[in-house]
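This part of the workshop introduces the protein records we will be handling. Getting from the letters to the tokens is the skill we practise here. The record below serves as our worked example for the rest of this section.

…
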Amino acid sequence: MANQIDGSDAPRGSAAEVLLVFLKLGLTSFGGPIAHLGYFREELVVRRRWLDDHAYADLVALCQFLPGPASSQVGFALGMKRAGWLGALAAFSAFTLPSALILLVFALTAPAIGGPVGAGGLHGLKIVAVAIVAQAVWGMAKALCPDRERSAIAVAALALLAFLPGSLGMLGALALGAVAGLVLSQGEARPTGGHVLMPVSRRVAVGALLAFFALLILLPLLAGQSQALAVIDRFYRAGALVFGGGHVVLPLLDGELVQSGWITPDAFLAGYGAAQAVPGPLFAFAAYLGAVLKPEPNGILGAGIAVLAIFLPGFLVLTGILPFWDQFRAKAAAQSLMRGANAAVVGILGAALYSPVFTSAITDLHDLALALAGFVALMVWRAPPWAVVALSALGGAGLALLD
């Protein structure tokens, strides 16, 4: 039994076609998940007419509702719609590999960068993370906290993290937001009536959901058996608990990797800054992190494990929800729950903006001025993130020469 979320009957393209289209997108899609969705619409809705605007909007709504990287999930589903399961795999691989390979090369070569100029450039990458995350917090707050109730939920989530930091605090903040959303932010029922054919049966969907929760429960229990399983566990958990966009993975990964001592704060933020300068999904940051882990597996093997582990939960839950999405999204309670959880996400990202991003990167007034310049360039001048990253790295190198 197939699920209908566009008016076509079956996949009518080839995996090779999907691979080439998404390779182009993976090499040119700068600007983060919202920008990626714009590139997808222009290429696949307007230019190639793989589906219509109504179908595309429905698919985007689904992927923004679920945990995981929204733009990658949309790409996965579009590849599936066009060329079945091979198309889904082709879309993921082609969209992700360019950025993952670039960040892997950066991870392997960064230790060789020495001297005050090299160290200053890496410090500039840490500083630009302040501007990038501040922009994300501002934009998400405007979109997800437009009223007093949801603003209060965001502040409460941030306050909870002040007393209960780490993954447990983030889970608590999301749960608090969801419950508060049911009470304070009344959603509206939506009409049913799906319109895109996806080759996912209810049996396959249930199996995917069982796998999603089984891995989430069992991996922590098995993590002590080997270091490889411990790495898979931490990246899988980060990918499974991300709501609200790619930037929200930052506090999750910090809690799993930096606070455990697996990665230094400096290396973490330098890689995060570099990730803003490459095209493709922000989750490709996992390739850098897997490569620079202190415990093995690291290097190329660690990068591969980290990338697969962080993307897997988002694709499992997407596959699992496809046949049931049309009925679920029509319920007012579902809309209320997600309104509250999304507001909590703003508070979680706001907490991450302070620590580790600001506290680790800003050491004096020079750093603060460079961070503010990057923020103004992004918010006021609408400069592309890759350009702001490059200028911040140059600024950091310049400041190092002045010291």
Summary: The first strand starts at residue 3 and ends at 4. The chain has 17 helices and two strands.
